[in-house]
């Protein structure tokens, strides 16, 4: 698993890490049951604080992307609760689309963008 952190980004490092793991799952680079590196190992590989990795793993666990076991560590475990996932997606998209409307993004442009993004994961 290759993680690339942009230390000059305004986005928090733990968010970048979380998003990259989610993208790995979405693009099938990470599969159900795959173990993630230990907190210490990933922190050393990337050159970040262990607490930052721990925060990312905790967020991934809360969002249903991993389970954390004391013996096995963090393991990809995709949440199958589709209703919850759809509601979360709706909330996130509502805010994103509201921002787009404020910037004069048309319905057609938004649909095209969603289709492009969705096609990347099919």
Summarize the structure.
This protein has 122 residues and is mainly α. The protein has helices spanning 13-26, 39-46, 50-62, 82-102, 107-120, and strands at residues 66-69, 73-76. Strands 1-2 form a two-stranded antiparallel ribbon.
Describe it for me?
By secondary structure, the protein is mainly α. It has 2 domains: 64 residues, Winged helix-like DNA-binding domain superfamily/Winged helix DNA-binding domain (Arc Repressor Mutant, subunit A, Orthogonal Bundle); 39 residues, no CATH class. It has 5 helices and 2 strands; from the N terminus they run αααββαα. Strands 1-2 form a two-stranded antiparallel sheet. Helix 1 packs across helix 3. The chain is globular, with a radius of gyration of 16 Å. The model has no long low-confidence stretch (mean pLDDT 91).
Using the coordinates above, name the CATH class of the largest domain: Mainly Alpha
CATH superfamily of the largest domain: Winged helix-like DNA-binding domain superfamily/Winged helix DNA-binding domain
Structure summary, number of beta strands: 2
Helix count, DSSP H or I runs of 4 or more residues: 5
Mean pLDDT: 91
Along the chain, the helix and strand elements come as: HHHEEHH
Taking pLDDT < 50 over at least 5 consecutive residues as the criterion, the unreliable ranges are none
Beta content = 5-15%
Strand order of the largest sheet: 1-2
The CATH architecture name of the largest domain reads Orthogonal Bundle
CATH-defined topology of the largest domain: Arc Repressor Mutant, subunit A
**Overall 3D form:** globular
Main beta sheet: strand number and arrangement? 2 strands, antiparallel
Rg result = 16 Å
């Amino acid at each position: 698993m290759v993680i690339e952190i942009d230390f000059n980004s305004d986005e928090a490092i733990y968010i970048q890490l979380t998003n990259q793991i989610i993208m790995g799952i979405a693009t099938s680079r990470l599969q159900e049951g795959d173990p993630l590196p230990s907190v210490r190992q990933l922190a050393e590989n990337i050159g970040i604080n262990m607490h930052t990795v721990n925060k990312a793993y905790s967020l991934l666990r809360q969002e249903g992307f991993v389970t954390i076991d004391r013996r096995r560590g963090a393991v990809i475990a995709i949440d199958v609760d589709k209703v919850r996932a759809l509601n979360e997606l709706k909330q996130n998209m509502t805010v994103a689309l509201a921002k787009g409307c404020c910037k004069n993004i048309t319905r057609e442009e938004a649909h095209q963008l969603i289709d492009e993004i969705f096609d990347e994961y099919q």
